[in-house]
Amino acid sequence: MLKQKELKIKRYPASTNRSLQAWSAVDEYLISEAKNIDLSAANTVIYNDSFGYLTCNIGDVKRFVVCDSNNQQGAIQKNVSENKLKSDSITFLNPLEKTPRKSKIGLMKVPKSLELFELYLSHFASNASVNGKLFAGFMTRHFSKKMVEIAQKYFEVVEQSLAKKKARLLLLEKPKQGVNYTLINTIEYKDQTLSQHYGVFSASKIDLATQFLIEKMVINSSHMNLMDLACGNGIIGLMMAQQRPDAVVTLVDDSYLAIESAKQNVKGDNVRFFHESTLDVFSDDSFDFIATNPPFHQEHEIDISIPIRMFKNALRCLKTGGQFQVVANQHLNYKTHLAKLFARVETLAENEDYIVYDCIK
Questions:
Q1: For 74, phi and psi rounded to 5 degrees?
Q2: d(C-alpha 50, C-alpha 30), whole Å
Q3: Cα distance between residue 305 and residue 338, in whole Å
Q4: Crossing angle for the helix pair 114-127 and 145-154, to the nearest 10 degrees
């Protein structure tokens, strides 16, 4: 087992906030537990490994790494490569994909979304051996009784560890057999009915910022190539397609679960979907109009670097004279960053909570 000090685990892409590191006490706790287990034939499954600390430190054993985020998988692969570790023992899976073989051990950083937590528990329980064990780590300040209630739906044994460096583990054993919950949400918005997988942003309703953007969104009649960036369940792209059925609408999200949800909600010959985080698959100057409600969190951390990268990528993909409309919470200083990139930045609409910027390349 490689010790943490022998490896250099970095955030990819790098954050401008230097206080944010690539692992936490939760990761360290999980690896310390893994050191006490013979993983040589366990077919270990790893969930929610943000930048690869778990994947890299677990040693050269067969492991399945479940990633929802395209960026997350890229960061893990980068850290594996930078630390010159073998990659042939690592198999990446999306959250809806079965493991090729039954697993005995699971390691998970409990995600911020408890619905995503449940989806991961369901995945392990349905892909593990009858004596499978899952170690789910979290910072004590993020604990809720709901975690235990959810875990008890899928495991016969649910226990908590002692705290180490303000981190704890849920120790889950004996996956319940034949458990099959429907992990899909249905959302009503005006005359639209949308469905989305557990773990996709805003589970119970279309969030208010997105609603505000949709209400104020203006698409020029000459714009034929449109993008819903960070599309989530696809509601913005759906509104684009309904407003402009003659245009090509491209929905993009870093989340596999989001893209699979959007595919259920937005139909048409002129609709395209991309599970993509960097927009590198698109040519320069290829879109007339891009709209987004961008994320600004990495799990529990606020990281303004995320939307700034999205702004830069959107700028590259826009044609000269192309339009970028973005909604933001009032407390976020997006205009300062947008003004450095776009030829013109104006306020399209605002209320007490949100503001929509209209930017021209």
A1: -65, -40
A2: 14
A3: 13
A4: 20
